[in-house]
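queue> holo job accepted (tryptophanyl-5'AMP)
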Amino acid sequence: RLRVLSGIQPTADSFHLGNYLGAVRQWVRLQDTHDTFYMVVDLHAITVEQDPKVLRERTRASAAQLLALGVDPDRSALFVQSQVPEHAQLCWVLQCLTGFGEASRMTQFKDKATKQGTDRASVGLFTYPILQAADILVYQANAVPVGEDQRQHLELSRNLAQRFNHRFGKTFVVPEPYIVADTAKIFDLQDPESKMSKSASSQNGLIELLDDPKRSAKKIRSAVTDTGREIVFDPEHKAGVSNLLTIYSALAGRSTAELEAAYSDKGYGDLKKDLAEVLVQFVTPFQERVRSYLDDVAELDKVLARGAERARAVASETLSLVYDRIGFLPAA
Ligand code: TYM
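queue> job finished
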């Protein structure tokens, strides 16, 4: 079986619809066909300031959400990044193979650093994509299911794998991005030209899976559309309506063509009302499952510890090989 790895940051109280449709939905499906490793990336989270208590809560809440969305800890290694020290160890090696200019060209760093001010931005934020490369390469992952916004980071991971292989002999699998075009970029409901993101200036366009379903339904009903009347999938000219159709299609398992036909004699209001209902039907039982996982934190921590153990078995093997190739002395 080919191997898959992906991760998600515990930096919000809830996952949003973009996280689920762009990434986690694929994680769940890939369990049927691949050997899967999924993690909550707490090391990445501390590249910006975190309150320790909140970080711990959000890390558990992230794991609970992954379980509630269908990550199966019997089939996948589900773990927390900081419990597998090999990520940080391999990261150091890869940092020494990355050019300063190369790291400086990462657009997510540039965006975040500009927002925070370069003096306040941490060096960890700068090396963030190299840690991500270590995450992927340490498992010899063949495929990495992510949303469109991670493409440049994956390109860096590929370059670093190839560079290491070229310099020290074939060591790493060169990973492929696994980006499903239909849902690779879910847009903000109020600003359908921008991706849905927790850091948007207004929260009105953001659907958080753990938010009050009534509030989410209301956000959908007040989504920005256009002055036309026709319900057609045309992302270029009808960004708002097309985004709603993408979300509807993914959640209800109906193609956008099927939805166009079903709504051919209906208005935007009908579409929004129905989609709001589909969303409520999805998040209500999801929230119940999350609560039940969080009711037994001891059990949740055990599941994660088991996942970390499985992950370490693979990661430590890669790291030993890497250390040997580089010329480090064996420890024993
Ligand atoms: P993060 O935590 O920002 O997001 C988790 C996943 O959600 C996807 N995503 C979206 N997809 C579609 N539309 C959107 N609006 C949208 N917003 C977010 C992201 O693309 C991502 O797949 N750097 C990563 C975490 C990471 C990682 C890794 C991923 C760390 N190490 C190794 C893969 C492999 C991140 O910040 O994701």
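queue> The longest helix spans residues 297-326.
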